[in-house]
From TrEMBL:
Chaperone as UniProt keyword: no
Keywords, alphabetical: Flavoprotein, Oxidoreductase
One of the record's GO molecular function terms: oxidoreductase activity
Gene3D superfamilies (alphabetical): FAD/NAD(P)-binding domain (3.50.50.60)
Species this chain originates from: Citrifermentans bemidjiense (strain ATCC BAA-1014 / DSM 16622 / JCM 12645 / Bem)
Organism superkingdom: Bacteria
Name recorded for this polypeptide: FAD-dependent pyridine nucleotide-disulfide oxidoreductase family protein
Amino acid sequence: MDQKYDVLIVGGGPGGVAAAYICHKLGLSHLLIESGKAIFQGIANTYPEGKNVYPSKPKENPEPFLVEELRPPDKPVTVEKYIQYVQHFVQHEGLNVLTDTQFENIEDGREYLKVLTSRGTFQAKRVLLAFGSSIPKELSVYGDAKMVAKGLDDPKKYIGVRTLVIGGGNSAADVIISILKEKRNANDTEPVYWAHVAETFDVNKETAQRLGEEILLGGNIRLLPGATPRIGEVDDEGVDRLVIRVSEDKIPGGIERYHAMSFPMKNVIACIGSQGPTSIYDRIGVQTIACAEGVCQVAKEGDRLLLLTSDFESTRKGVYVIGGAISPSYMRINKGAIQEERHPNLIYTAVNDAHHVIDAIAAKLKK
Ligand SMILES: Cc1cc2nc3c(=O)[nH]c(=O)nc-3n(C[C@H](O)[C@H](O)[C@H](O)COP(=O)(O)OP(=O)(O)OC[C@H]3O[C@@H](n4cnc5c(N)ncnc54)[C@H](O)[C@@H]3O)c2cc1C
């Protein structure tokens, strides 16, 4: 039997953690699922090392931080310290969190919504989507490549293994630098392969310098320019593998000759950029509206904005969306009118959205 909750929360960033905490305080059963290794994985992946975190608040919003416990301190702390503090907080409060769990879809049930995830199905009366604004792109290959990591949660995992990093930009280079550093500390000489579909890699000067330093210190890196991930398959021993074509040429008679390499998917990291959450909204069937000329102040003409009530409920009953997932603006349905609502992407906004939504859900469920 699937487990049942009052609220299932998708995403363990500031919005999701605030929502879980308020559920806990109000006595609503909850489960927070996070695709990363740990709470605040999204922030850990996107902030540069050592960056200060500020308790920024939009000028036009008079409301205080509604969950003081998650407010970054006035005297800014580094992102690493803030993450550590929040992870302790989550543990101390005993919030119900399942990491390494990817949200996939929602199906309707009689009394409960069914939430399909990479770890099976859960049932909840309400679903709160707090997955932020930056959804990593999936590799598009024949077959399934879901096992491929989309970021680096623990560089130690790659010690002693030949690792493949896919992507030609700064984030791929950063991942490689971290793995090479860890391998160097462990005297591991196994290479890191760096593959990119284009013939050239495109990183900024500062990243190139750090990468160069690692190579000079003995980092074993093999470049695979012009390489294309092709197939996700399971081998005879049941290992999920990714086949990547590393070179090809055409010979007469319509024949293609190519070299390919096949890596266990658990040794592959794809850093191929991120996209907005619109594809997820389409998949789960919540309505968006395209901005017509002159209608939107924040969004550009043609951008598709999510349609939400003033309680952040989407057009799919029982499904709410908050935080970075609806920034920088959404369409608010208010007294029969629809208007674009500015929604800055800040910790403050995510946390306060969570407070409003869970209050509204609690009021409805307790009726
Ligand atoms: C470099 C940088 C610096 C910033 N500095 C500040 C600052 O100083 N102060 C400030 O107020 N704001 C700052 N921001 C903005 C702030 O980080 C965001 O507004 C905030 O993190 C949004 O919170 P959220 O909970 O909506 O989403 P996120 O923090 O993005 O959290 C979403 C979580 O959902 C998870 N997830 C995604 N997809 C799935 C899925 N399919 N299944 C399960 N889980 C999923 C992600 O792994 C992530 O952990 C900064 C942003 C950046 C990029």
